Backbone:
């Protein structure tokens, strides 16, 4: 008789201990649903990035940067464009690009000049208008 009582208490304790885990999982699902609905309903584009300019040099190559854009939900990444064509993404939101990287990864040609513009993109895929252009030359 004593053994049955111990087993019943152990089972009851296990059920009580599981209750917070179930509640936490339900809260996580609810939060994810709200986040997904917010992104799905987001129709507002981010503001235009400003101040595209040379901010320094790295190993003899120019580094360009810009001021952060704002968004009602948040900027997810920046689209880096040369002459209006998207060539690279700043997914880490460092707000900088090395001209050498444009040559190395984006096939920008040495000795050629390009207009660099930036667009901010939010998680819903809304794009800002392009920034003012900065003339860059690949060395």
Residues:
């Amino acid at each position: 008789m004593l053994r049955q009582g111990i087993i019943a208490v152990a089972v009851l304790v296990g059920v009580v201990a599981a209750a917070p885990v179930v509640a936490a999982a339900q809260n996580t699902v609810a939060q994810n649903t709200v986040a997904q609905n917010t992104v799905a309903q987001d129709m507002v584009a981010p503001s235009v990035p400003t101040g595209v300019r040379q901010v320094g040099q790295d190993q003899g190559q120019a580094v360009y940067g810009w001021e952060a854009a704002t968004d009602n939900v948040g900027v997810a990444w920046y689209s880096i464009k040369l002459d209006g064509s998207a060539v690279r993404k700043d997914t880490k939101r460092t707000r900088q690009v090395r001209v050498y990287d444009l040559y190395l990864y984006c096939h920008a040609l040495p000795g050629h000049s390009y207009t660099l513009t930036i667009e901010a993109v939010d998680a819903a895929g809304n794009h800002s208008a392009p920034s003012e252009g900065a003339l860059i030359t690949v060395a």
User: Anything to note?
Assistant: The longest helix spans residues 2-41. Strands lie at 50-58, 61-67, 75-82, 85-90, 96-98, 113-122, 134-137. Confidence is low (pLDDT under 50) at residues 6-16. The CA atoms of residues 78 and 129 lie 12 Å apart.
